[in-house]
Amino acid sequence: MNDPLGIPSPWARRFAHLVEKGGAVLDLAAGAGRHARFFAGRGHPVVAVDRNLDGMADLDPEGPVEQVKADLEDGSPWPLGDRQFAGIIVSNYLHRPLLPRLAAALAPGGVLIYETFAVGQAAFGRPSSADYLLRPNELLHAFADALTIVAFEHGIDYAPGPKAVQRLAAVKGRDLVPL
Predict the structure, then answer these.
(1) Nearest 10 degrees: CA dihedral of 96, 101, 102, 103?
(2) 4-22 as b/e, with b when 16 or more CB fall inside 10 Å?
(3) If I label 72, which of 45, 47, 94, 101 is the partner at 20 to 30 A Cα–Cα?
(4) Residue 98 pLDDT > 70, yes or no?
């Protein structure tokens, strides 16, 4: 999940095809923008939100990635208003109060791709605070009522190094999706 080379995660690559062709994608807590770049390269307009945009300074401001500087945890209003997205990608980030907002920000048929650290991560390194680690099945329970779960994983991933993770791919309002 933490790839210094900017390569999108295998989980994001696995489910990217479910996002409507040409549909807008939100990369939440985008960091250096590895997923924003990936989806832009697939022909999607992308909104990349982060409190620090320095990692995306090389991106063309007129290009397909709209950069929004926002601290998602300081109590400010949601920076995207009522905008909806065909896809939302979240990787290595957890702020529980935002979980319901993510389901609401998906357009009908939209796809949520989420992966972050889970309880047990402290054995392998940071983060180690329970505030930033998902409890067993937490992602599954957070979205089960609002979205159709396509895939869910919870366990230890050993590539490239050990980490405790949860991963979820889900769609809004579709009964069946092509895998």
Answers:
(1) 110
(2) eeeebbebbeebbebbeee
(3) 45
(4) yes
Residue 141 neighbours by CB distance under 10 Å = 11
Return d(Cα 78, Cα 36) in angstroms, integer: 19
Q: Tokens for 89? A: 């990608």
Residue holding tokens 């999607």?
44
Model confidence at 177, pLDDT cuts 50, 70, 90, reads: low
Amino acid code (one letter) for 52: N
d(CA 155, CA 120): 9
Residue 114 to residue 146: CA distance in whole angstroms: 15
Helix (H) or strand (E) holding 14: helix 10-15
pLDDT at residue 2, as a whole number: 44
Which pair of structure tokens corresponds to residue 32? Answer: 């250096």
**What is the side-by-side order of every strand in the sheet holding 163-171?**
65-69, 46-50, 25-28, 85-91, 106-117, 163-171, 148-157
Tell me if the bond preceding 100 is cis, omega within 30° of 0. Answer: no
- Gap between the Cα atoms of 114 and 165, Å rounded: 10
